Automatic annotation (TrEMBL):
Belongs to the class-III pyridoxal-phosphate-dependent aminotransferase family. ArgD subfamily. This is Acetylornithine aminotransferase. PROSITE patterns: AA_TRANSFER_CLASS_3. It catalyses: N(2)-acetyl-L-ornithine + 2-oxoglutarate = N-acetyl-L-glutamate 5-semialdehyde + L-glutamate. Homodimer. It is an enzyme of class 2 (transferase). The gene is argD. It comes from Atopomonas hussainii. May also have succinyldiaminopimelate aminotransferase activity, thus carrying out the corresponding step in lysine biosynthesis. CDD domains: OAT_like.
């Protein structure tokens, strides 16, 4: 028996994998649209979207075709050369956004790492080494590299790895006065998620973001939007900055960008991009032809009036269904979020039990997420059908009933 034919099961994870994850008891083996099947053939509806990644669901024919076609041409060339899919994708991203230039990476963390390095390099070159301080939001999440995890405002992720990078501070999200008190002429960048994802699906106030943009202008600081989770149509706009009408200087993108294929990117202006000269930053796989070909297909499907308008319609259907469940069981404080990034913060009696709701949902054949222990999170496909929404909500209602019944 070859290794590829070797049977595997969930118990093998504990034998061969580093224990930094605690995956569910089942292993998905096949997906179609917003449904997946596990090794036993059990079907589940997917409201999790691979944590806001499978933006067009599973096995989307246009993505499969793009990957298959490119796989027959060329897989990798290195950045000593460029390639056609990377150039096509970059042209489409810049034509649809504020940006003039794109840098490709492989993940959200890598995109944010590049964004933060670029912000510091720009300030260093223009204003000198003293201008290096970064202000981010408390409870933010920007990735797991040492730089990005330090910018992220959650000590539980950044503590215990030795000395942290200096010059990084945190202020409460949506609190303009706190930012005013912290920002100075030493600030090189303010980094924000338009909707805080991992900490509970908290949308920014529009007036707050507009005022932050003004503050950054006053202090010659760059505004960096982490749109790893909100980008590529999830808000009902291609990027959430377009929903708010507030333009950043640097934007990071990943997750939905590749629809499940690993790719990340930063978007920025000509003036700022010029400070990443030859040799200042790089990535072996960044701009990989396979990833860029798939991301281009994602872009072509998502950046259409039909797809983006459909996000608002689906949001309304989800919200109505979730509120109907809550009217019966009273487990959520509210239903909040933007587009198809939805959070249901739990009432006091169920605080800390988001994982119980996740587990109960899985037992009913539904995949949901948590965003902090206190919030049930949904990040489904943008093209999920009404039938899949309704069936998934029915399964969620049964799960909620079971948790409430104890």
């Amino acid at each position: 028996m070859s290794v590829s034919d070797m049977p595997v099961q969930r118990a093998d994870f504990d034998q061969v994998m580093v224990p930094n994850y605690a995956p569910a008891a089942f292993i998905p083996v096949r997906g179609e649209g917003s449904r997946v099947w596990d090794q036993s053939g059990r079907e589940l509806i997917d409201f999790a979207g691979g944590i806001a990644v499978t933006v067009l669901g599973h096995n989307h024919p246009k993505l499969v075709a793009a990957l298959t076609e490119q796989a027959k041409k060329i897989w990798h060339v290195s950045n000593v050369l460029t390639n056609e899919p990377a150039l096509r994708l970059a042209k489409k991203l810049t034509s649809a956004t504020f940006a003039d230039k794109v840098f490709f990476a492989n993940s959200g963390a890598e995109a944010n790492e590049a964004a933060f390095k670029l912000a510091r390099r720009y300030a260093h070159d223009k204003f000198g080494p003293e201008k290096h301080e970064i202000i981010a939001a408390t409870n933010s999440f920007h990735g797991r590299t040492l730089f990005t995890v330090t910018v992220g405002g959650q000590p539980k992720y950044s503590d215990g790895f030795g000395p942290k990078l200096e010059g990084i501070s945190h202020v409460p999200f949506n609190d303009l006065e706190a930012l005013k008190a912290q920002i100075s002429d030493k600030t090189c960048a303010v980094v924000l998620e338009p909707v805080q994802g991992e900490s509970g699906i908290l949308p920014a106030d529009a007036e707050y973001l507009k005022a932050v943009r003004e503050l950054c202008n006053q202090h010659n600081a760059l505004l960096v939007f982490d749109e790893v989770q909100t980008g590529m149509g999830r808000s009902g706009h291609l990027y959430a900055y377009q929903h708010y009408g507030v333009t950043p200087d640097i934007l990071s993108s990943a997750k939905s960008l590749g629809g499940g294929f690993p790719i990340g990117a930063i978007l920025t202006t000509n003036e700022i991009a010029a400070h990443f000269g030859v040799g200042t930053h790089g990535s072996t796989y960044g701009g990989n032809p396979l990833g860029c070909a798939v991301a281009e297909a994602v872009f072509d499907v998502v950046n259409t009036p039909e797809c983006l308008a459909g996000v608002a319609e689906r949001h309304a259907r989800f919200k109505a269904g979730l509120e109907a469940i809550n009217a019966k069981y009273g487990v959520f404080q509210t239903v909040r979020g933007l587009g198809l990034l939805i959070g249901c913060p739990l009432v006091e009696a169920y605080k800390g039990r988001a994982k119980d709701f996740m587990s109960a949902a899985e037992a009913e054949g539904l995949m949901v997420l948590q965003a902090s222990p206190d919030v049930v999170r949904l990040a489904p496909s943008l093209v999920i059908t009404n039938e899949e929404i309704d069936e998934g909500l029915a399964r969620l209602e049964r799960a909620v009933a079971k948790v409430v019944a104890g």
